Each structure stands twice: as structure tokens, then as C-alpha cells.
Amino acid sequence: MLHRRILHDDGRGVGEALDEQVCVNNNKTCEGLTVRGNYYISIDKLGAGARWRRTTGQEIYSPFLLAFTHENLESWKSSHWTKGTILDPNYSLPPNVALITLEELDGGVVLLRLAHLYEVSLYKYLSHITSDARSKLHKYMF
Questions:
Q1: Tens digit of pLDDT for each residue in 100-118?
Q2: Which of 11, 50, 76, 121 is the most buried if burial means most Cβ atoms within 10 Å?
């Protein structure tokens, strides 16, 4: 439903008229509430909708948030461990795994949270258990 505005109760469940308004100047000027948003539509083969919904939803509503500092490089290097890397730079997480948290905690500990995006039987291939990400990270972090 995009938006429904009616002046009289239509008997469809809320028990009152749906006349949401935005008022200014001590309620002297009132206008109907304007709702804005984005709709994403995809036409897929039968059974592929869950994949599109999960993947696109992750990209739209939970994009990576990069954080930077104004600290100079030498000061940052002296206070952080910078030896080595975790993964091959060409590696990416499997399509059914999402990065939820990657955060440095006290004492050089790193909090890494991953999530499996698909419930059992939701999508033919991507609902299967994956151990790829953990096996690649295991020797470095676990």
C-alpha cells in the first residue's frame, strides 16, 4: 500500500478515519501527510525472488559504513597492530553471507559478526550451510 487517506472510517480495521495531517502555525495551517519513499521491483524466474530480496535488501538497507580518522599515519601505526592481512585481497564472502560487524575492541581483539541471509528451504542453493568464510578466517582469527 502506498498511502491511504480517507475522511470517513471505511470499516477496514483501524476504527477511525485515516486523515493524517501535518499542521504548522499552532494548527492554523494543515495539509495531508505526504509520504515519500522508494519502491524496488524485480521480475525473476520462479523461486528466485528470495535471492533478489535478500541481496538487494542487504545492499540498500545495510551498506558498508566506512569510518575514517583525522589521526596522522605515524601516530595511528604506533597505536595499532599493522602486521599482515586476514585474507587474500581477491577473496569475497559467499553470496549467502553478510558482514554484520567488524570492530576493533580493547586489547587488540577484533569483533567479527557474520550472518547467513537465507533460512532453510528459502532458496534452492543459497539456503545451504556455508563454512567457506569461517574456514578461510579460522587460521587467522578463531
A1: 888 888 887 888 888 888 8
A2: 50
